[in-house]
Design brief:
223 residues; binds D-xylitol-5-phosphate; alpha/beta; 34% helix; TIM Barrel; 9 helices; eight-stranded parallel sheet; binds zinc ion; single chain
């Protein structure tokens, strides 16, 4: 199998140095990041608490690239407007955390943002199959959400391939985003499976050379 694709790279600030967040954002942007991934966790849907709209708004003041905001929160509907006002460009929710996914996605788009759905490792593609018309991004979680630096779950690769086929057959323009354990080591197989966007936290921010890692990740799209 071969691929020749311009992958988008979305570094996750979860692994950035929060005492220097502005500098870190500028650094990944200078290193060629396409989007900036922001992990919002509520301590309820996932066992960790991270960032709210205030930090998203602060990131917006320095970022020149789209803010890719990943809501790992229960009942995200209450916060869609708040994250829109804070400056989110792409807003991704978990179908496991909302009762009426179609309504949630429609509201995200009505507010003028791109709409995403993120699937936990145990959630099937059936969860998004009937709402493809409302989606700009489907995110496959390749770790159980909650923390950076976890190991990639390789059994998610067939799921990515199946999603690629589902989207291609649908004719909709939907990006496949992969989140969790993405590194120069795991990237080639993920790219071959049909991914369009890579989230990478520890791989980018844990490296002394952000550009080198971002280039390497993007290079996985050209094998
Ligand atoms: C995990 C988050 C990820 C995380 C990825 O719950 O959604 O975005 O930051 O971190 P790495 O790339 O270190 O697996
Ligand atoms: Zn994420």
């Amino acid at each position: 199998m071969e691929t020749n694709k311009n992958l988008l790279i979305s570094p996750s600030i979860l692994s950035a140095d929060f005492t220097r967040l502005g500098e870190e954002i500028r650094a990944v942007e200078d290193a060629g990041a396409d989007w900036l991934h922001i992990d919002v966790m509520d301590g309820h849907f996932v066992p960790n608490i991270t960032i709210g709209p205030m930090i998203v708004a602060a990131a917006k003041r320095v970022a020149g690239i789209p803010l890719d905001v990943h809501l790992m929160i229960s009942d995200p509907d209450y916060y869609l407007e708040g994250f829109h006002e804070a400056g989110a460009d792409i807003l991704t929710v978990h179908p496991e955390a909302t009762h009426h996914l179609h309504r949630t996605l429609t509201r995200i788009r009505d507010l003028g943002m791109k709409a995403g759905a993120a699937l936990n490792p145990s959630t099937g593609l059936e969860a998004v199959k009937h709402v493809l018309a409302e989606l700009d991004v489907v995110m496959i979680m390749t770790v159980s959400p909650g923390f950076g630096g976890q190991s990639f779950i390789p059994t998610m690769l067939p799921k990515v391939r199946e999603l690629r086929a589902m989207i291609d057959a649908s004719g909709y323009d939907i990006l496949i985003e992969i989140d969790g354990g993405v590194s120069p080591k795991t990237a080639p197989d993920i790219a071959l499976s049909g991914a369009d966007v890579f989230v990478a936290g520890s791989a980018v921010f844990g490296s002394p050379n952000y550009k080198e890692v971002i280039d390497e990740l993007r290079g996985a799209g050209r094998q």
